[in-house]
C-alpha cells in the first residue's frame, strides 16, 4: 500500500481555545486546554480527549474490517475508553488507554470468535501501533438471541 496523507488545520481563536478542521472533512472541532491545567476550559474537546478517541475509533474501524472478513454476525459494538494522563520520565504523557469494547452477538457459538476478533483488532490498530502508550483491553461479549419470526 502506498503512503496516505491526512491533512489537519489548526486555527487559534482566543485564550486557550482553537479549532481544528481538514480540507478533506466537513466538520470543525473546537479544541482547548483541558480544565485540569491552568486556564483550561471545561466542556470542549481537548488534545487528550482526541488522543483517546483516536485509539478508540481506530479499534472500531479495525474491528469492523476483521469482523466482516471473519463473517462475524453481531448486533452492536460500543467502546468506552479511558485515557490516562500522567508523568513519565518527568514529562506529561498519555501513558495508558483502556478500551472497554462491548460486542453484542446473536449466537452464543460466536462468543469465542468475537473475543478473538476484539483482541486481533486491538493488536492490528494502526493508531495503537503508532504510539508508546500502553493499550489495555477489557472486552465483553453479550448474546442477544434472535426472536422467532
From TrEMBL:
Domain of life, source organism: Bacteria
Record-linked Gene3D superfamilies: 3.30.300.20
A matching Pfam family: OsmC
InterPro entries, A to Z: KH_dom-like_a/b, OsmC/Ohr_fam, OsmC/Ohrsf, OsmC_Ohr_Peroxiredoxin
PANTHER family named in the record: OSMC_OHR FAMILY PROTEIN (PTHR42830:SF2), OSMOTICALLY INDUCIBLE FAMILY PROTEIN (PTHR42830)
Protein name per UniProt: OsmC family peroxiredoxin
